[in-house]
Amino acid sequence: MSKKNNRINVPEAREAMDKFKMEAASEVGVNLKEGYNGDISAREAGSVGGQMVKKMRPVRMMKFERVDRTAVGHRFVATYQAGLYL
After folding, report:
1. According to DSSP H, which parts of the chain are helical?
2. pTM of the full predicted structure?
3. Which residues pair with 78 in a beta bridge?
4. Is the separation of the CB atoms in 32 and 50 below 8 Å?
5. Higher pLDDT residue, 17 or 25?
6. Which is nearest to 25 in space by CA: 40, 4, 14, 38?
7. Which of 10, 5, 34, 4 lies closest to 22 in space, CA to CA?
8. Cα–Cα distance between 35 and 20 in angstroms, integer?
9. How many other CB atoms are there within 10 angstroms of residue 51's CB atom?
10. What's the rounded Cα separation, in Å, for the pair 47 and 41?
11. Exposed (0-12), middle (13-18) or buried (19+): which is 25, by Cβ within 10 Å?
12. Residues in contact with 86: Cβ distance below 8 Å, sequence separation at least 6, in sequence order
């Protein structure tokens, strides 16, 4: 069984992560305060975390049609998907 933790690997990043969390909370309409936020519901906490993940891992898709180089007059649709993982 894997052990999960929510420790920040780079201690200097704590302030930036707290600011990021506050921005995500304001975007989804959750009022967070500095320090302990045990009074918010699990749904509100989940929406903040979901917004953070949504911003950290955007996925882009591009679809276009191009001429098939192997057969004259044929076309095919190429789809590319790229993810950015920070």
Report:
1. 14-28, 42-56
2. 0.57
3. 64
4. no
5. 25
6. 40
7. 34
8. 14
9. 19
10. 10
11. buried
12. 56, 57
Residue 74: partners with Cβ closer than 8 Å, 6 or more residues away: 67, 68
Mean pLDDT of the chain: 80
Q: What percent of the chain has pLDDT over 70?
A: 69
Nearest to 48 by CA among 23, 84, 73, 72: 23
The more confidently predicted of residues 36 and 1 is: 36
pLDDT at 30: 94
C-beta of residue 47 within 8 angstroms of C-beta of residue 28: yes
CA-to-CA distance for 31 and 58, rounded, in angstroms? Answer: 25
| Percent helix, strand and coil across the chain, each to the nearest 5 | 40, 20, 40
Tokens 């302030």 belong to residue: 15
Helix or strand run (H / E) with residue 81: strand 75-83
Contact 78, 66 (CB under 8 A): yes
